[in-house]
Amino acid sequence: MPLGVAQWLRSHVPRKARGALYAGKRIVTGNKISNDYEKKSRRIWKPNVVVKRLYSDALGHEVRLKLTTHALRQIDRSGGLDRYLLKTPDRLLHSDVGSDLKFKIGLAYKQRWAEDAAARRAGQAAAAASAASIGAGGVGLLSGPTAAAVAAAQRQVADQLLRQQQQQQQQQQQQQQQQQQQQQQQPVRQE
């Protein structure tokens, strides 16, 4: 067999495999040999293809895929669908569905990273403003997200204290009103 044909056969991907994740598994042909080793029967072995719903962290929902059990094991080993698709090179993926999903997951991660970077920049600006307003109260020594977290925690504690004081005042007012009502209801004794 010429080298080009053998190379083409090894690199050829069936149409069914392009719509699924086969993880390198292909249809294998060979012979079934009888017990007495005299008769050979041609046969083919097809990959074990299953339909599964796999969760994608980046997309935030489950994706319904056709894949081989070998691909399922590879996904488990790599730590999830996202990691498997992002780590596997396109030349080894051999799947239109896999390439499209890989592109969508990459975009989702890029958007998430951009949002996180914007949040960090906003947090640093807020931390700098709160550190300037607080002065040397200890927060000024911190920078970035840590200072923002400390400032947020301080605001939460202050809000909780304010709510507790308001509740105590309301309880005192209710007790005073109850005492006044009880005094008004008691008859006055004249002797």
**Strand line-up across the major sheet:** 1-2
The CATH architecture of the domain at 4-108 can be named as: Roll
Main CATH class of the domain at 4-108: Mainly Beta
Structural class category: alpha+beta
Question: SSE layout and pairings?
Answer:
Layout: H1 3-11, H2 15-18, E1 28-33, E2 40-45, E3 49-56, E4 61-68, H3 69-78, H4 81-87, H5 90-93, H6 96-134, H7 145-185
Antiparallel strand pairs: 1-2, 3-4
Helix pairs in contact: 3-4, 6-7
Q: What do you see in this structure?
A:
It is a single chain. With 191 residues, the chain is of the alpha+beta class. It has a domain at 4-108: Roll (Ribosomal Protein L24e, Chain: T), CATH 2.30.170. The protein has helices spanning 3-11, 15-18, 69-78, 81-87, 90-93, 96-134, 145-185; strands spanning 28-33, 40-45, 49-56, 61-68. The longest helix is centred in the C-terminal third of the chain and has 41 residues, at 145-185. The chain is elongated, with a radius of gyration of 35 Å.
